[in-house]
Fold this protein.
Amino acid sequence: MFWRRWISQPEVRIDWRFLLNSGRKLRICCCISKEFQRRNISLWLLDVGGDVSGNGVAKLMLTILSAFAEFERDRISERIRDAKRQMRAEGRLQGGKRPFGYRVDDAGALYPDEREQYALIEMRKLRTAGKSYRAIVQALAEDCGVAVDHTTVRNILRREAAK
């Protein structure tokens, strides 16, 4: 873990936000504090203004700060999840690469690309006919004017089969 480099020191002084952001969870922050206490290492949080490994009030303060940091991280992930759910419901791109067969307009909404949609239909048809991925790539280049790799064809068809 990140804090192991401090074990040889008799005293560690850090900003409490660094500890909370590095620890990620209340349980981890408390484990770090207990490990420092077990090894007789003083843990000083600069903004709190004292040793949080020794006295009960400081330990209570560290626990409260850790709980609020964990709560805020959970709220952030909830907001991100809600935003992505909303974007998905509106048919907007949620980030990453655009899906094959679609284009993205200025507002971030997906709309079908006719040429790539036709290529998708051809991919399915050719694969059902027993053609290899490389043969499908050649047929798409000749018939549709779409240049893709055989692994792209494989991934697209597997993704659609999983739906």
